[in-house]
Amino acid sequence: MATNLKVNGKALNVEAAPGTPLLWVIRDELQLTGTKFGCGVAACGACTVHVNGEPTRSCQTFIEDVDGASVTTIEGLESKVAKAVQTAWVEKNVVQCGYCQSGQIMSAVGLLTENAKPSVEQIDEYMAGNVCRCATYQRIRAAVQRASEILEA
Fold it and tell me: Whole-structure pTM over 0.85, yes or no?
């Protein structure tokens, strides 16, 4: 099955069987390995990408569901909000093992795009769908708060 989509701004025609998760097309066909496989059931957030600007779990999004869509992976994340999040992640030394971080960053960018000044409760609620095996949740929260400050400046 042929699927037309944009990935990181590049128009592509991808051949994949119906029911193939977007995650496997991104990783195996397009060789963009920043998006991670975590659980396979959309519960951990490691596979988060943006589909038409919305954070989306790519392990449970089928290729036929993104025909005509614009997909952004961690490799293609470029915006004022993305730069603020990336800067804050470094400043707050968020990363420990790093496995979940692309999904965490994609979700943080989604949050700050919707709400540039979220409360601690809003951060916790929005980011709750992303699991961090190393439990760096306090640093993640602090980085989202810092990114909000950077955007405000």
Answer: yes
